[in-house]
Amino acid sequence: MECIKSEWEYKVKYGKSRPRITVQIPIEKNRTKEILVGTISDDDCPSPSCCCKEEHAIAKLIAAAPDLLEALNDMIEMYEQVQPVGGWQGVYDSAIYSIKKATE
């Protein structure tokens, strides 16, 4: 399954029950998978400024994950080509660790 970057979408969905905070992930042409991150409290807040800031933040982070991973991979590739003298090895090691954590 190959997901397309920039097409993961953070949404607040309204239905018969409490509104839900979700992330939509394309899995095939014209087909998506929905990940439920949380529900909105009884006060019906539609934005991250209310009761459920953490759920909104998590959903936005999940939606941005493909773009963040691509940027981190680009940074690693650039670092490996340039290999600056000192100072950046910790950042490089952290990027490698983060990618492994997210992909293995």
Care to give the gist of this entry?
This protein is 43% helix and 22% strand.
* Tally of individual helices: 2
The structure class reads alpha+beta
SSE succession: EEEHH
Sum up the overall morphology in one term: elongated
Defining traits:
104 residues, alpha+beta, 43% helix, elongated
Task: Give an overview in words.
This protein has 104 residues and is of the alpha+beta class. The chain has one domain. 43% of the residues lie in helices and 22% in strands. The protein contains two helices and three strands; from the N terminus they run βββαα. It has helices at 53-82, 89-103; strands at 9-13, 20-28, 31-39. Strands 1-2-3 form a three-stranded antiparallel beta sheet, covered by helices on one side. Strand 1 (9-13) and strand 2 form a beta hairpin. The protein starts with 8 loop residues before the first strand and ends with a helix. The model has no long low-confidence stretch (mean pLDDT 75).
Topology:
Layout: E1 9-13, E2 20-28, E3 31-39, H1 53-82, H2 89-103
Antiparallel strand pairs: 1-2, 2-3
Helix pairs in contact: 1-2
